[in-house]
Amino acid sequence: MAVVCDVVFDDESSEQLDIDSLSMMGAQREITAYLIDRGYTPVGRWEARARTDGKAAEVSRKFKVASDRRTKVAARDTRVSA
C-alpha cells in the first residue's frame, strides 16, 4: 500500500506531499502535524469516503489558517484489490 496526500487550496490549486507513513492512520497523524507546524488548525475530524470498487480509499479533513483561508487535505491509499 502507498499513501498519497494532496493538499487542495481554496483557489483549487493543489500540492502533493511526500508521506513517510505506510498506513492511513499514520499518514493522517503525519499530515496533521505537518500542517499544524505551518500554522493551520484542523476543522472537524477526518472523513472517509467509501469505495465499492476496491481500488482506493479516500479520507479528507479541512484545515484553516488565522486569515480564515480554508484548505482541504485528501489522503488516499492506492491499494488495488485483485
Question: What's the topology here?
Answer:
Layout: E1 3-9, E2 14-17, H1 24-37, E3 41-49, E4 57-64, E5 70-77
Antiparallel strand pairs: 1-2, 1-5, 3-4, 4-5
How is this structure best described in words?
The protein is α+β, with helices and mostly antiparallel strands and 82 residues long. Helices cover 17% and strands 44% of the residues. It is built from one helix and five strands; from the N terminus they run ββαβββ. It has one helix at residues 24-37, and strands spanning 3-9, 14-17, 41-49, 57-64, 70-77. It has a five-stranded antiparallel sheet with strand order 2-1-5-4-3, with helices on one face. β3 (41-49) and β4 form a beta hairpin. The longest helix has 14 residues, at 24-37. The radius of gyration is 13 Å and the shape is globular. The model is unreliable at 77-82 (pLDDT under 50).
Descriptive labels:
82 residues; alpha+beta; 5-stranded antiparallel β-sheet; 5 strands; 17% helix; globular; disordered C terminus
